Amino acid sequence: VGYFKSVNVYAVRSSDDENLGENYRDVYIEVEEKSTGSASLFMGFSSTDDVYGGLDLTEQNFNIAGFYTPAKGCGSRFRGGGEFLHLRGTLGQSQNNVLVSWMQPYFFDSLWRFGVELSRTGSELQNNTNVITYGGSVTAGYPLSNFWSAGMRQRLRHAKDNLYIEPYDNSENAANSVRQQKDLLDQSGLVSAFSGNINYDSTDNAYKPHRGWRSYFEAEVAGVGGSYDFLKLSYLNSLYFPLWTKATFRLRGDFRFIVPFGKTSVQTVPYSERLMLGGENTVRAYKPFRLGPAVQIQDGAGNEHNTSTPEGGVSSGMLSFEINQEIFRMLDVFAFFDVGTVTLGTFQLHDIRPTAGGGVRIDIGNRNPIMFGWGAPLVRADRHNGKWQKFFFAMGGQF
Q1: Quick check: 118 and 103 in contact, CB under 8 A?
Q2: For residue 99, what are the CA distances in angstroms to 57, 137, 327, 368?
Q3: Is residue 162 predicted with pLDDT exceeding 80?
């Protein structure tokens, strides 16, 4: 369970065992406890959020019953329950987040996992947007086998989405166009959704796999209460194959779809729920969230012009092919070929955008690698419309 530095088990025959026969012994178990909590500051840089930092607190042997247990020792009453508590606060140039999560991995001494999460997020990562959300969720899961697990989740999320789009010119027609777009995309309200998921994981290493398959499917329905009605489907896969000495091939395929119904249409799906791609964690060589349709405005003559603000979509798909070669323990090099698309059509994947490039990962310890990469869109037009992120990087650490 990860709570002890060492465990010694041995059998001893005592005088009390003489009447029981030769096959009976007393079994002694000696354990030495280890620290199960951690507190760390972290900071870093990325091409998505520039400079960021924060505080992370974790306790893997938390006891929530300590809140109503008579105080014997200030800290001891909050330990020993076998629960997982995670507190995290992040402050960045473009986003700030607060997360509190608690999980009981053996709910009522069963194999059921039960958890609660509360969060507050503020993001200005997309150009000319300010998205603020408050939310919470209750989750439950059960391991079906060594590789398979299933779960369910009920979540509530209140979002306030604001866009700040300057008109193309100062004409009245252009100003009206901007107001229409703001009415279309400035969606504020409550999302109440229930989901079920199934997960398969046969990888040989949780942090740096060399072989195996991770697959995750989730179906979520929003509309039991709340302001919006939609179905969200997610099917995410990563396959790992060893090629030669210390070389791994990864095939990643992610597909997500939103199907609005009832009082919600494609145009009124909340901005904070829409699907977006781009950045160093999805389709590399595109700026974060910039792959896909952009918000359009009109000039005085009625001509439409794209802005730098992503509109998001209700269908997204991506495939990624990557070869990773370990040079030595702290240094890897990689080459990639990514393709992706985001559309406003339900179950429509078209206008595919491919990219290619490579980079290096440097692991300085504590599983916080530094990544530097270079890539280019293979559609030449996207290299000249402000969507190209020629260099991408991410780095961070804890101390």
Answers
A1: no
A2: 10, 11, 36, 20
A3: no
Encoded amino acid at 163, one letter = L
CA dist 108 → 13, 17, 80, 112 (Å): 35, 35, 15, 8
How far apart, in whole angstroms, are the C-alpha atoms of residue 380 and residue 86? 45
pTM of the model: 0.82
> If you search the block for the tokens 């007393």, which residue do you land on?
26
- Give whole-number Cα distances, 219 to 191, 343, 364, in Å: 15, 20, 38
Q: Residue 36: what are its φ and ψ, rounded to 5°?
A: -115, 0
Q: What is the pLDDT of residues 20-75, one digit of tens each?
A: 777 888 899 999 988 888 777 766 666 555 677 788 888 888 888 888 776 665 56
CA atoms of 392 and 381, how far apart (whole Å) = 20
Rounded to whole angstroms, how far apart are CA atoms 284 and 245? 26
Most confident of 85-99, 164-178, 219-233: 219-233
Alpha helices in the chain, H assignment, sequence order: 172-185
User: Is pLDDT above 60 for 10?
Assistant: yes
**What is residue 348's predicted lDDT score, i.e. its pLDDT?**
93
